């Protein structure tokens, strides 16, 4: 089976590209949407987009029937249900797609969608592996598609305000950023669906797609795929993809030069594979960024703390706050507190506006790729138990062939990227 057979990207779909681009130019025009992956986050995205005036829901695709039906119900029956995403790509009446499948499908579907002339809102983490992300960027550029990574913090006005304040020297010189996610779920999580056995409404082979064939296990599928290397990268690519994205934005660099990770699945007994305790340190020039994750001791749940010579800024979804450093009982700056607004709406609006202007969105595919790369490097270093030196221009680990092999993932036949 060649690539064309796999995706059946027809000339008609290609011709629709120009048509789609023209029809979204008018300010009042409708934009015809499809949803691929109608699970927890897919339905959340769908709900947000459906509230926007120009969004016209056409199709909902999921390999699990009950979730597909829930996605259709959100449209009050306006969208039709499809089981195979390739049938959405074949359709000329869809301009844009939301891809909210598990991570191991993001690259394949996004690239095929770009080839079929669709614009894409692809959930974070953009990729499962570094090599995939680079190919996603190339596909978006080659086919002139708008590809937004679903990192909604990137569109938050208060995030942009905080980043500008920091980059303008508002908290002095910044040399340390501490990001993290901590909770206590000991002894672990349980399957969320199909605990009693596989449902006839679930196409398991199509759920696996390019991932290795394994006997069905409900804990590996819906929601909990996050804790298995075949499909995802644990909390590092789950919450790390959000907070490290902002840390990288603040640092103002494409990538770190050095990465050192520690941790493992030490305590949880639920059968997952990804670390339940992890600490990763990144060098960004003269800024040290750390990622601290724990699934077995809560402490402070979310952290994104930026330390400057004049003050510390703590930046979260609800807003940011600046705490001045004090010297000789004198604060070195004014304290400040700013509230945030709904990030999902701001991010959806940014994507929709870019569909009309054809400008790069706030979490453009290249930004999503760079941040996913940062996460993947943290995991590779943790798994190999050694630090890595990263050549960002070549997208290669310097002098470490074993680490470089982990920058790509083998695909199960007949799925392939190129
Ligand atoms: N931006 C955010 O804040 C945020 C929040 C949660 C999840 N996410 C991301 O969203 C993605 C989905 O996470 P989730 O929690 O919704 O998982 P989920 O398991 O609840 O949903 C994924 C859905 O995709 C479906 N699916 C799998 N393969 C498919 C295929 N080939 N075609 C069509 N549908 C397919 C599954 O059946 C399932 O319904 C992940 O990448 C996750 O990182 C982002």
Write a compact overview of the structure shown.
With 418 residues, the chain is α/β, with parallel strands linked by helices.
Give the arrangement of secondary structure elements:
Blueprint: H1 3-7, H2 11-23, E1 31-36, H3 40-50, E2 55-61, H4 65-74, E3 80-82, H5 85-90, E4 96-99, H6 106-115, E5 119-123, H7 130-142, E6 147-150, H8 157-167, E7 174-182, H9 204-208, H10 234-238, H11 240-251, E8 258-264, E9 277-284, E10 287-294, E11 302-308, E12 311-316, E13 319-324, E14 326-327, E15 330-331, E16 336-339, H12 343-357, H13 365-384, E17 388-391, E18 396-397, H14 401-405
Parallel strand pairs: 1-2, 1-4, 2-3, 4-5, 5-6, 7-10
Antiparallel strand pairs: 7-11, 8-9, 8-17, 9-10, 11-12, 12-13, 13-16, 14-15, 17-18
The structure holds nicotinamide-adenine-dinucleotide (NAD).
Would you give an account of this structure?
The chain has 2 domains: 3-154 and 351-364, NAD(P)-binding Rossmann-like Domain (Rossmann fold); 157-191 and 204-340 and 370-405, 2-Layer Sandwich (Dihydrodipicolinate Reductase, domain 2), CATH 3.30.360. The protein is 34% helix and 22% strand. It is built from 14 helices and 18 strands. The strands form 3 sheets. Strands 16-13-12-11-7-10-9-8-17-18 form a 10-stranded mixed beta sheet. β2 (55-61), α4 and β3 (80-82) form a beta-alpha-beta unit. The model is unreliable at 1-27 (pLDDT under 50). Residues 36-42, 61-64, 67, 85, 100-103, 105, 123-124, 150, 152, 206-207, 209, 222-223, 238 line the site of nicotinamide-adenine-dinucleotide.
Low-confidence stretches: 1-27
Number of strands: 18
State which percent range the strand residues make up: 15-25%
* CATH homology group of the largest domain: Dihydrodipicolinate Reductase, domain 2
CATH class assignment of the largest domain: Alpha Beta
Tally of individual domains? 2
The CATH architecture assignment of the largest domain turns out to be 2-Layer Sandwich
Q: What is the CATH T-level topology of the largest domain? A: Dihydrodipicolinate Reductase, domain 2
Shape designation: globular
Outline the biggest β-sheet: 10 strands, mixed
Give the strand line-up of the largest sheet: 16-13-12-11-7-10-9-8-17-18
Ligands and ions found: nicotinamide-adenine-dinucleotide
Mean pLDDT over the residues: 93
Question: How far do the termini sit from each other?
Answer: 12 Å
User: How much is the radius of gyration in Å?
Assistant: 21 Å
Please tally the helical runs, counting DSSP H or I stretches of 4 or more residues. Answer: 14
Tell me the structural class. alpha/beta
The share of residues in helices is 25-40%
């Amino acid at each position: 089976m060649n690539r064309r057979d796999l995706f059946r990207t027809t000339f008609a779909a290609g011709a629709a590209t120009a048509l789609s681009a023209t029809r979204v130019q008018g300010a009042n025009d409708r934009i015809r949407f499809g949803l691929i992956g109608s699970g927890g986050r897919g339905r959340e995205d769908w709900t947000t987009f459906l509230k926007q005036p120009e969004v016209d829901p056409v199709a909902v695709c999921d390999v699990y029937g009950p979730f597909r039906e829930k996605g259709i119900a959100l449209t009050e029956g306006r969208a039709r249900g499809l089981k195979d995403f390739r049938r959405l790509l074949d359709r000329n009446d869809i301009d844009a797609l939301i891809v909210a499948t598990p991570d191991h499908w993001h690259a394949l579907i996004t690239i095929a969608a770009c080839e079929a002339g669709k614009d894409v809102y692809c959930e974070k983490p953009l990729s499962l592996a570094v090599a995939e992300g680079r190919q996603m960027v190339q596909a978006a550029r080659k086919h002139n598609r708008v590809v937004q990574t679903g990192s909604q913090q990137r569109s938050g006005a208060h995030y942009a305000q905080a980043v500008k304040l920091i980059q303008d020297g508002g908290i002095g010189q910044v040399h340390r950023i501490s990001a993290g996610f901590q909770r206590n779920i000991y002894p672990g999580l349980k399957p969320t669906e199909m605990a009693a056995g596989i449902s006839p409404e679930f196409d398991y082979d199509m759920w696996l797609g390019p991932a290795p064939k394994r006997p069905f296990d409900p804990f590996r599928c819906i929601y909990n795929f996050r804790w298995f290397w075949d499909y995802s990268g644990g909390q590092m690519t789950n919450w790390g993809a959000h907070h490290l994205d902002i840390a990288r934005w603040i640092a103002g660099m494409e990538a770190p030069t050095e990465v050192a990770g520690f941790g493992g699945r030490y305590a949880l007994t639920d059968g997952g594979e990804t670390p339940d305790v992890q600490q990763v340190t990144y060098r960004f020039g003269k800024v040290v960024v750390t990622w601290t994750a724990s699934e077995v001791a809560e402490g402070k749940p979310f952290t994104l703390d930026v330390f400057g010579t004049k003050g510390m800024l703590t930046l979260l979804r609800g807003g940011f706050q600046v705490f001045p450093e004090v010297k000789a009982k004198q604060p070195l700056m004014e304290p400040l507190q700013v509230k945030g607004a709904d990030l999902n709406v701001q991010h959806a609006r940014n994507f929709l506006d870019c569909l009309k202007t054809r400008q790069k969105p706030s979490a453009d595919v290249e930004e999503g790729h760079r941040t996913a790369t940062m996460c993947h490097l943290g995991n590779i270093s943790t798994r190999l138990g050694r630090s890595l030196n990263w050549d960002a221009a070549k997208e290669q680990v310097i002098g470490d062939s074993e680490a470089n092999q982990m920058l790509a993932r083998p695909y199960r036949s007949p799925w392939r990227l190129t």
